[in-house]
Amino acid sequence: MNIWWVRRDLRLSDNQALTAALSEGGGVVPVFILDEHLLNTPAEKRQAFLFAGLRELDHDLRSRGSRLVIRRGDPATELARIAAECSAADVYAEQDVTPYAIRRDLAVGRKVNLHLVGGLGVHPPAAVVKSDGNPYTVFTPYSRAWRALPFSSQTLPTPAVLPPVPAFFSAVPPDLPVPDLFQPGEREAQRRLAVFLSGAIYEYQDARNRPDLDGTSTLSPYFRFGMLSARQAVLAARQAVENAPDTQARSSCETWINEIIWREFYQSILYHFPFVLQTAFKPSLRSIPWQNKPQDLRAWQMGLTGYPIVDAGMRQLAATGWMHNRVRMITASFLVKHLLVDWREGERWFMRSLIDGDPAANNGGWQWTAGTGTDAAPFFRIFNPVIQGEKFDPAGEYVRRWVPELERVPQKFIHAPWKMSSEQQHAARVMIGIDYPAPIVDHFVARRRVLDAYSQSRSTIVSE
DNA sequence: TTTTGAGTTGTTCGA
DNA sequence: GTCGAACAACTCAAA
Question: What kind of architecture, by CATH, is found in domain A2-119?
Answer without folding.
Answer: 3-Layer(aba) Sandwich (3.40)
